[in-house]
Amino acid sequence: MKTEFNLAYIFQGTFMPVYEYIALNKSGKNIKGIIDANSALAARQKLRDKSFFPVEVKETSTKETETNLGEVSLTTLFKRVKAQEISVMTRQLSILMGAGITLVPALDAMISQISNPLFKRIIAQIKEAVNEGSSLANAFAQHPKVFSQIYINMVRAGEASGSLDSVLDRLAEFSEKQQALKGRFQAAMAYPVFMSLIGTGILLFLITYIVPNIISVFDDMQQALPLPTLLLIGTSNFFKANWWLFIIVFTGGLIIVKRLIKTSKGRYMWDELKLRLPVFGTVNIKLAMARFGRTLGSLLASGVPLLTSLGIVRNIVNNVVIAEVIDNAIIEIGEGKSLAYPLSQSRWFPPIAVQMISVGEQSAELENMLEKFADIYEKEVDSQIMAMTSMLEPFMILAMGLVVGFVVISILLPIFDMNQLVR
Fold it and tell me: In terms of CATH architecture, what is 190-423?
């Protein structure tokens, strides 16, 4: 789920200062809360319009929620709304609404539970929008950098069907499963990536610093050096003299690849390459299938129409090749064909996925079938990633051992030759 909160969004001007208040209600009872307004005077007027008598109104701490241009704190600049925070908020909101609490008091309760100042401000604005008559989905839609299209459309469907609490619960479960899958993938790849970085750093240190100091003792020798030693000396000298060239080539390559990916043709070629790669291509296909099934199943179960759901899913799969297949499916469904038929014409949708979709359409259980094959592919991705990482670890250890062994032998061979001459 896309939830990044970038700097451009901070400066769009949609945010107003947030004020904490203490006021008296009609019964004379003290109440506390949070309200957004252009100024403290406007905040007091808002409270009076609600028949509250303001006792104390103060802007929240600048360390937490500073928003004026030029007064934005470093903490605020580098804060963002995380997917986990949205998931927790959604789960808690569904629980409150399921307990019979109406929407505005539930949102008010959520504000006090949120520690992220930016997210707190957003929920305060959403509460104000709902309190002024806006639907919850439209209030969420005012913050597209935080709430994704799937989130907004599922909430809109829940409001239309009168089952907002159950839709929020399903949305929270969907988000949690997506995060869990992403977390397992990142955790599985963390060790190989860490080992690669450490190993590369150690190797460069050996070649550019340690090896030249040790091999300098061989410069005065009048005998020919062994071939491995000559190779090591040549490699070390090349790295020392041309280290800047590697940085330029590496940086230039990254810039070129990024610019190519930004073009439509380049992005298509890159996404197709990800699907065709040996081993990794299979994992990418299964990840896309799991995301397709989970997202489409959740949208349909929430009451979102099929064509609208497919239009959202095409952006969730994060692959233009598969998105093109979904676009063709939308056209053919509009012409009266089933969902399974156009998907079966593509090589990227595995037969088992197409068969389960076809069975789901025939039995009117498409949502359940999509959820089931999403479960299947998520488990397959887990097992395949675990197998890959278990194979990568000994391979990396072996590769590092061979490189270090070559360095050691290259240094020891001339020493052995010197000992033989001395004897």
Answer: Up-down Bundle (1.20)
